[in-house]
Fold this protein.
Amino acid sequence: MSYTLHRGDALTVLKTLPDESIDAVITDPPYNSGGRTSSERTSRSARAKYVTAGSAHDLADFPGENRDQRSYRSWLTELLTESYRAAVNHAVCMVFSDWRQAPTTSDALQMAGWTWSGTIPWKPASRPRKGGFKQSAEFIAWGVKGSLDNSRKLYLPGHFIASQPRKDRVHITQKPIEVMRQLVRICPDGGTVLDPFTGSGSTGVAAVREGRHFLGVELSAHYVGIAERRLRGELTQDDFTLAGPEK
Amino acid sequence: MSYTLHRGDALTVLKTLPDESIDAVITDPPYNSGGRTSSERTSRSARAKYVTAGSAHDLADFPGENRDQRSYRSWLTELLTESYRAAVNHAVCMVFSDWRQAPTTSDALQMAGWTWSGTIPWKPASRPRKGGFKQSAEFIAWGVKGSLDNSRKLYLPGHFIASQPRKDRVHITQKPIEVMRQLVRICPDGGTVLDPFTGSGSTGVAAVREGRHFLGVELSAHYVGIAERRLRGELTQDDFTLAGPEK
DNA sequence: TACTGGTATGAATCGGATA
DNA sequence: GTATCCGATTCATACCAGT
């Protein structure tokens, strides 16, 4: 398996991809939630919005959390449109969002041409909420280019229960590898998974482990470095596993 | 605890309710999903859509399943607007939907004036899907009139896992009582829960069991009869429980 | 290895003070 | 009134250390 990482703006890089070169898109864009007023949403950094005051960890901030709702929708639509162009027929696109952005996300998915086929909840640990229901779920909107490939003997779950990695976490929104490994199976074996918002590269790690190629784009040099290191580690480990028979 | 059932059109009945007479709205409107084309959605009856072909059971059809998406939104908005008017400050409104209607549902909730505060997934049993992700979740969009009452020491879960009742089921979309019992707790003790689409009356049964009053509306005479019977059973049972100390 | 008890923390939320 | 900042809050769960 191989991986390619681009440091740069997602949309700019996507435009350079050839048609029908991607077999699945799995990504977690910076969605612009959090905060009560529009200015709070657009002016505060991701860390300021999402990290509990007093939290001891010191994870780096990430860019892209400054769009208002309308611009988020059109930006995401354009991005998914380019992904659609670069995808093969039967390709699946999966986009993470929180509850606030879920409707906007499925709108953008459809506006970009994908056939919206479902919304999958997954449950990270979360805080309780006094006087009401705790918000314990996040969502993955998924869609297909054309129709699902019914010839594959593939049955994937419709919801995931897992929590964020706590140890060795390098990104505020890092996803558990076990969940990502399930998701990348939607990509045919040996195909290429695209993640325009690579972050710390969990999608890539999962893809490589599951025998898929990975194509990642990330704006922040800090995170490109981290993703590169993690992915290189995977390949080295693979080679090692191949070389020595034990375990 | 007491209950009131109206046989009639939801909107018509809602308009007759006095202002600020309702403490919570919990309902499962007939949403128009299923079917890939708008004509498929609007022409097939609820039974045809939701009941497995060849299934032997004989649940009655229910009305209201023939709206297209736009008209569904405006109809639901009007309905939720009337509910909003009839609700007290801090009242919570919860609306069930499937994944397809979830964005429309949160739109309507907000258009009606409620402050959308979250989307809760709940998982009924479902069939796997070849070549992709199983669609195992349905959603409850919830919102508040004004703001949540933070003085209550109430902490409710953010997702529910339960399967639809199989035995003793009297309505196609009947919800498990255990889930409904959790939901009705959002209504203050002794308050009144409104369900404009009572169906077989599960919301009412849960409300009565949890010590809330219930106000239900149902168009179908068939289901009003069933709901009435179930609710009367609850009260009788309550009386019995009160009379005899054992269990 | 399996259990147990202590501790840290979360893609938040809320009220209130300040500018 | 709006924007911004600050700090208190809440408990299920993962993690750790110790038996």
Notes: Residues 37, 39-40, 43-44, 48, 53-54, 125-130, 134, 136, 163-164, 166-167 of chain A lie near DNA strand D (CB under 10 Å from a C1').
